[in-house]
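Entry 14. Ran structure prediction on the chain below.
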Amino acid sequence: MKFSENWLRSVFDPGMTSEELADVLTMAGLEVEAREPVAPGFDGIVVARVASLQPHPDAERLKICVVDVGGEMLQVVCGAPNVRAGMRVACARPGAKLPAMTVQRVELRGVESHGMLCSERELALGDDHSGVIDLGDDAIVGTDVRDALDLDDHVFTLKLTPNRGDCLSIQGLARELAALTGKPYRGAQEHEVAATLADEREITLEAGGACPRYCGRIVAGVDSRAPTPQWMVRRLRRSGVRPVSAVVDITNYVMLETGQPLHAFDLEHIEGGVHVRFATPGEQLALLDGRHIELQPKHLVIADDSRPLALAGVMGGETSGVGEATASVFLESAYFAPEVVAEASRGLEITSDAAHRFERGVDFALARRAIERATELILQVCGGNTGPVVEALGGLPVRPDIAFSPERVRQAIGLTIPNEEIAGILRRLGLAVSERGDEWSATPPSHRFDLAIEVDIVEEVARVHGYEHIPASLPVTRTPILPLAEHRTSVERIKQSLALRDYFEVITFSFVDRQIELDFAGESNPVRLANPIASQLSVMRSSLVGSLVECVRFNIARKQERVRVFELAACYRRDGDGYGQTDRLAGVCYGSALPEKWGEPLRPVDFYDVRGDLEAILGAAALCFVPAAHPAMHPGQSARVLFGGREAGWIGALHPRLLQKYELGASTIAFELDLDVVRDRDLPTHRPVSRFPPVRRDFALVVDDSVQAAALQETIRSHGAPLVIDVTLFDVYRGKGVPNGRKSLAFRVLLQDTEKTLTDAEVEAVVQRVVMILEEKHGAALRT
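Output, structure tokens:
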């Protein structure tokens, strides 16, 4: 929100400098984002009246003007096309200092010029350089232009939080400053305009819950071409509002002054009475900004007997808007439910100053006072006669009492604040306080929608008392060292291990595009967001791989040829009628297996490189990789990961169609694991070191191609226990001597006893037992 400092001070002067005012507002939670002067420094420029002018004898576009600067006549040569006799202009006398120059006496084509008539650009007040500034007939000749245009002013820009809609007006800020400073504020002046006409329109509330209060009145015989007063134009512009016409400007001005949005309809375009109702299917409305919208039954509209006239609380309709030909207007001032306005404004992507206020909550007691103020200004500026205010009422919001304890307030803030000060602060904020022993109650005023529970009272007391008065003291507490579970690997250790393997950690959004979910998780029914922050972030992810692929693409676009990234984050899924959440660990490798260097040939990263990373990080003994298909991975280069016999996740090369679709252009390997599963580990156990030599036996087993080496290893280890201490695959052979469809797997088996040296008979007994079980279980035969 923008506002003029001088406008605020005309309503309530806190008696402090501009810098102090900005500090007080910021410390009270109304952050001052910017404070800028409305004009740069200049002097020597006064209001002058053009007494006469004549063409320059030697220049077609120049005029010789004689101007009255207040008891002194000056001859000024001017080339502005809009200068005319009797006009009041800004005249820089010789010696005047402008933002970009100092004015001197000069001779232009043989004619002396004792000064300069200034445009907006020359005074750095705007970009208009098409002519000199027209100060209007009310400007007093001889006065300083800074005084005439109120240029010794600042524009404040507030960054208000959504709960403080009550401060979106000058009177709201004045009320807040009075509470913060403790200075008296008489409040907004009441304006009541007596009706001089009997004309009125019947108002029917057909949606009382969405609009429990609606005020309207007719103002007839207005001059829509009347100029808006310059003081009002300046205040509107400094508040970021573009002047349009007198009637529209007045409604905007009253909104900025009081916080109550208003709308003016051209009375000639209203047929019959005024109806506040929800739209019917198929109705359409042309808005003031030129948009044509199709209305839905959830949209609240202002209508006459035949058609919708405006989208309630958001924007008026084009056909009923006020124009230069308007002779009579119907003024609207109403209270609309915040959720109804927000639904229409955000659903239709229409922003307006009115919707900005209504969706945050407008004072429901303000409507009548605002329409009286707007009527007063319209009669002053545009003339006319006014009818009575017609008001329709439904069930207005109720402001329930808030129970609180002064002692709990003090405990929460950490300061000893007397009961009298707590009550005084709340009463200055407009709350009605009832003191009953240790338990008090407070009733919020109609303009404070954000006060509902005890912690709100705590915040208000702390805020007005002053956050800066709360001493900065370090808390005194004990921080015992918490035990670490030996059977759980810490997340930090996993991160450090990945970093040591040349991976970079990234943090990505939990929201992704629906297509990414379909491509990388095969999820056709993801968890959708009701109000996504962007169209490409519309669903909750059930896999981290898609987000990491997007990160890889981002780096590839910036000429990175080798990318290794990982992320630990939550993934989301549907769980019956509700939702579930799982912590995952995922990584993606792209490009070469090793950084480019002179001693190693470049080769692309492959499945076994990433598998080796996982074995180094999580322990090879606990991991098992079972070939399996995954919708996002290459059919022949993907595997399910087992950790300690439990399913943990997936590893594999991305599917070629995804490489082409996402323009990766090289082998890309990904893995994704359930973090809770891979963090579990067996507790370390003591095993004595044998003093006796091990015995080695090599098995060359011929099996079907479908038999996995890991399954054979597990069978040898389990059925050879306790003497078998290690099983290692050292050769795979297909070819001459091995039938088609079968393969030869050679294992090195180490046997050892901790009590004695093994005999050949003991070793052969174990070998024969293992070979027999391998034949029965896996169809394995010793290769001869």
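The chain has six domains: 2-38+154-181, 43-148, 203-393, 402-468, 491-679, 695-782. Will compare against last week's run tomorrow.
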